[in-house]
Backbone:
């Protein structure tokens, strides 16, 4: 039986495997994590609105009724296009007749990973989101303990770098977290006085894809939530105490980075042509030029529709539609029929801004405010995998909506309380930690 | 205004603060984590049945409408009984008129923390539970990748040490996870063939508190789920490949430790008399002898009712009732009335064994099987803080019950796939990790 290897269990990879159901092919799906992640809602986990398990789903479970699909937890380190094999980090080698590379994108600090990357928090994985949640909540806790008012202001200042959809969503949700959810929980600080600064290098929000009027609408809606939007603001440096912008400094303890993504490193090993963002240029049938048996889809690929210089954006609908196309192409290969060309059906784009605010565009239609938010809600719920998640997410949202609460406000991770020192709270401890504290002990 | 400092936001500490609502006292509640944890359901998080946020609740939120209560995230490192102050790790000092020490218990490996403690997993915190979940799910993933059958058997063997309620609950839930939830998700291994071994040094399960007939019932119900119960089995050693028992070795990759707890280290700094388990001996009004202004309650205290040599067990109802008593004692102090003595009203004990199995005792009544399980469900839901959690937990349970699924099966933590190497999967990688992998990048 012919063998298909799919690398990546995101929207693209998962769709390929699902759409091939019933086709007589051995399918192996390899991912570095055991769960499919509903990325569009990841910012909700970072902002304590949802729990990780509400937007993630075990990849294995998606194929429990499809015995032809084998799911492997592993990391692909090498691809041999001549031998048609992929090798995993642990040495296992998988042969293929078709290969689909759907590895997605990762945070990118444009060569400043070791400095800016260490001082700001990206948002691409569950772990990223949980770390942001921890850092944001700890900043409020540290501020509550801080006697010095300048230090307190610094702790209560949050800078979001990047005015794309993720930056807009994060900034809106963060402002709302401070102004409504946390507002009554503290005694010393007033969380609603927290400053949220959204920094965008360009002259408008939501560059690339959205209409300028949507950008203006988003900016207005963010301003209503108290977000400071700074356009045309170039980041000169990130240091330990804040962000240096071309037009001045912002002292802050927490910097979120949504300004750059690039395709995952594996794309560089395919031997094809990659663009500045590491994306592999693909042919009109989504295959690697010269290697019709290798497909690259989703955020890892640069697909420019014929006659267009503009590549398709890195969003879930593109990955899903490409996944369906590739599954069909493989079925046609089996029947020795021509594959045809992938064409993207643009069903619209949207970004949400806190609860009950959003911008959305579909064809010539543009929405803003509550109507756009409801559309966003329905569409996102529809695509969430699994009834349970759909239900729990709906309930979480509804509950947060009516009660202004957030249920997932956990600061986890070992010895969270010790992290307060990272925020400069209080003096140095005058005593060493208790000697009789036992290793492995946590509260 | 008089000042009360409460150390610990578990059942005892939280109850004291809540029961003092409306009393003119300044209350400061200090905890090392930001959430109250519903400990009795912690094993459900470890076994991927519930998400952390479903059994934990931000302590601040519990007091959002009670401005006299100040909640601090911090670690108490010293208590000065003469000056009546507690000092936090970061140097802050809090004065008190009353002090309630409700710091709870931690895992105890009886002096073998650095060896046994490093090779087995305790279950006292959210972080512990998430780590167990990760390790258990990774063991199945590693087994799916393992070619050698002896190694595979070792990966699919789980030893639970300690036959108390937690050990019984964990072993039952683990057997059920393997036999129902994971059963159809793998292609190479048969998860239902996983071996769960429950090791108890004594001659019966559920020692201390439960009737021998309940112990027999629990053992029978565990056997129905396929758990191997080994009684009278003393642990000689834990090493990297398994557990050495007095009557033979068990090769296994995962060891869960529920055999010992002791009061948290802070109790040793109170200057009172402590027992072998680190618990502080308290007077009949729950105060430290000689220091009526210092109370110790819950798992941190050893309270023996007058005329009894037997101390009350370390369970939530004891902590809650002591918390209510201490709040009343403080109110009486304010009115210069005598405090009286604490007396425990035993409302029963229960332990659950997978879905639809349990044992319960209340007075002379004993239940087993489904009836006990339903009682357990209702009582635990009733005590869960917050409507949202109650609802979500009920729904999670119901959904798991009808669909045999578990929604929280996430393997999180950085680079989970690399952990497979810890399980000896595959060869050593022949290539270094990709050079172009960027720091901070995760899928």
Residues:
């Amino acid at each position: 039986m012919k063998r298909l290897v799919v690398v990546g269990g995101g929207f693209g990879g998962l769709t390929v495997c699902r759409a091939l159901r019933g086709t007589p092919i051995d399918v192996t799906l390899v991912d570095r994590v055991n769960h499919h992640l509903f990325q569009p809602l990841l910012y909700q986990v970072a902002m304590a609105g949802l729990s990780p398990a509400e937007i993630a789903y075990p990849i294995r479970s998606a194929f429990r009724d499809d015995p032809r699909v084998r799911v492997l937890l592993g990391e692909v380190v090498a691809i041999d296009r001549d031998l048609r094999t992929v090798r995993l980090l642990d040495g296992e080698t998988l042969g293929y007749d078709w290969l689909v590379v759907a590895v997605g994108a990762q945070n990118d600090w444009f060569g400043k990973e070791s400095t800016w990357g260490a001082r700001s928090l990206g948002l691409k994985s569950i772990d990223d989101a949980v770390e942001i949640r921890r850092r944001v909540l700890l900043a409020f806790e540290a501020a509550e303990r801080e006697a010095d008012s300048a230090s307190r202001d610094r702790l209560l200042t949050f800078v979001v770098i990047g005015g794309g959809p993720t930056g807009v969503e994060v900034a809106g949700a963060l402002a709302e977290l401070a102004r409504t959810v946390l507002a009554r929980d503290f005694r010393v600080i007033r969380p609603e006085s927290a400053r949220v600064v959204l920094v965008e290098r360009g002259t408008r929000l939501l560059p690339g894809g959205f209409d300028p009027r949507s950008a203006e609408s988003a900016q207005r809606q963010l301003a209503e939530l108290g977000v400071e939007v700074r356009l045309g603001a170039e980041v000169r440096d990130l240091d330990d105490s804040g962000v240096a912008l071309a037009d001045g400094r912002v002292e802050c303890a927490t910097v979120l980075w949504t300004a750059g993504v690039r395709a995952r490193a594996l794309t560089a090993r395919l031997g094809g042509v990659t663009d500045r963002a590491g994306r592999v240029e693909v042919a009109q049938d989504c295959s690697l030029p010269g290697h019709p048996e290798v497909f690259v889809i989703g955020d890892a690929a640069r697909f420019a529709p014929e006659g267009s210089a503009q590549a398709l954006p890195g969003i879930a609908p593109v990955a899903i539609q490409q996944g369906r196309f590739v599954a069909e192409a493989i079925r046609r290969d089996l029947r020795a029929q021509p594959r045809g060309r992938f064409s993207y059906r643009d069903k619209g784009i949207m970004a949400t801004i806190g609860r009950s605010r959003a911008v959305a565009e579909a064809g010539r239609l543009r929405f803003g405010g509550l109507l756009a938010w409801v559309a966003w809600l329905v569409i996102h719920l529809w695509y969430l995998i699994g009834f349970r998640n759909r239900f729990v997410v709906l309930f979480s949202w509804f509950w947060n909506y009516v009660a202004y609460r957030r249920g997932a406000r956990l600061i986890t991770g070992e010895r969270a309380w010790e992290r307060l020192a990272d925020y400069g709270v209080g003096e140095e401890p005058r005593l060493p930690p208790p000697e009789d504290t036992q290793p492995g002990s946590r509260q």
Notes: Residues 164 and 237 of chain B are 20 Å apart (CA to CA).
